[in-house]
Design brief:
Radius of gyration: 29 Å
Number of helices: 13
Strand order of the largest sheet: 2-3-1-6-7
Number of strands: 7
GO molecular function, one term: diguanylate cyclase activity
InterPro entries: Diguanylate_Cyclase, GGDEF_dom, Nucleotide_cyclase, Rev_trsase/Diguanyl_cyclase
Structural class: alpha+beta
Pfam family, one: GGDEF
Keywords: Membrane, Transmembrane, Transmembrane helix
Bound molecules: guanosine-5'-triphosphate
Number of domains: 2
EC number: 2.7.7.65
Distance between the termini: 60 Å
């Protein structure tokens, strides 16, 4: 449970708000009913349901997007209803809602909800004792919302930047090994469910150390970038390339296996040989290929591709080798 809360920021906010909403509003609901204010008590109960149901939904389904939106909406307009029904003591409830909305939904949506809630409260007018109070409320609500917006916007762009840094290889711009682990697990689970074929290619540049040693690391880096560019140009948009480490890449190819896969990879091997170059000539790469088998774990799948790559390297490089006893690709040199 703690693990989920620690790893899912929006879920943790939903749970925090839902729980504090339930704890904070319940005494007021009881108070309103005991004072005979049935309408305000009913509104409190509706808000209680409005925050606890999305919280339960988010917890059970993991869908924090929809629950966050519902919660932001209900808490803000619920606060408007409370303010309108009980007068200025209810006004204060809108302030936490003006801020917390930014934790639940995108900054633009939170801002739109805030503006609508404040305007609605002003139009209904019943919460205010005087015009002066109403305009003071409007001005302070705008200041609170504007500050929260700037903070949320900045926080969001920094989070996106961190996500980018954590998942993208800075040299080549493809996803790194960390995101590969997640994507492979997801793709394998989907393939297991749908029966859609899924193949994995371990692609390793041949004698890369020699290129570095002879022409320098800068040239080595350029070769890596060129290779990524060539693979990207000659594969489909739903194929995904990851940098596995060093000069080794993983290419994930959904919907391809058997003869179709052989044709594509034979072509790709030749394309790399033809287009990826260094000052001393062309670059070659070896491929180890494994198609996911029913019930197979990602680790075993990768290990089979790795074993095939090892065989490609040890049998002469510049070739495609398939796991599970399939024949090595005949070595066809480009014209
Ligand atoms: N330029 C550059 N070199 C890198 C990078 N990452 C790893 N390397 C180098 O890649 C080389 C990999 O060498 P090896 O593992 O011996 O592989 P290889 O020379 O390609 O030999 P085979 O794979 O057996 O054909 C090492 O010299 C690493 O320093 C990088 O980001 N840029």
């Amino acid at each position: 449970m703690l693990h989920r809360l620690k790893n899912d920021f929006r879920l943790s906010i939903i749970v925090l708000l839902g729980t504090s909403g339930v704890l904070g509003i319940t005494p007021f609901a009881v108070l309103r009913f005991s004072q005979g204010n049935v309408l305000a008590g009913t509104v409190d109960v509706l808000i209680l349901l409005g925050v606890s149901l999305p919280m339960t939904y988010a917890w059970l389904t993991g869908d924090t997007r929809r629950s966050g939106l519902v919660m932001a909406f209900i808490s803000s307009f619920g606060a408007v209803a409370v303010g309108t029904l009980v007068g200025d003591p209810g006004l204060f409830w809108l302030y936490p809602c003006l801020v917390t909305g930014f934790f639940l939904v995108a900054p633009r949506i939170a801002m739109a909800i805030n503006i609508s809630a404040v305007l609605l409260m002003m139009m209904l007018g019943d919460a205010f004792r005087s015009q002066e109070q109403m305009w003071s409320f409007a001005a302070t609500a705008v200041v609170v919302s504007a500050c929260a917006y700037v903070f949320a916007y900045r926080n969001r762009s920094q989070r996106r930047r961190l996500e980018h840094l954590a998942t993208i290889d800075p040299l080549t711009g493809v996803k790194n090994r960390r995101s590969m682990d997640q994507e492979l697990a997801m793709a394998a689970a989907q393939s297991e469910r749908t029966g859609f074929p899924l193949s994995l290619v371990l692609l390793d540049i041949d004698h890369f150390k020699k290129i570095n040693d002879e022409y320098g690391h800068g040239v080595g880096d350029e070769v890596l970038v060129e290779l990524v560019w060539a693979v990207d140009r000659h594969t489909r948009k739903y194929d995904q390339l990851f940098r596995y480490g060093g000069e080794e890449f993983v290419l994930l190819m959904p919907g391809l296996e058997g003869a179709g896969l052989e044709v594509v990879l034979s072509h790709l091997r030749q394309v790399l040989h033809r287009y990826v170059r260094h000052p001393g000539g062309s670059v070659t790469a070896s491929f180890g290929v494994a198609s996911l088998q029913h019930g197979e774990s990602v680790e075993t799948w990768l290990a089979r591709a790795d074993d095939a790559l090892y065989r490609a390297k040890s049998s002469g490089r510049n070739r495609v080798v398939y796991a599970d006893g399939m024949e090595d690709q005949p070595l066809i040199e480009p014209a």
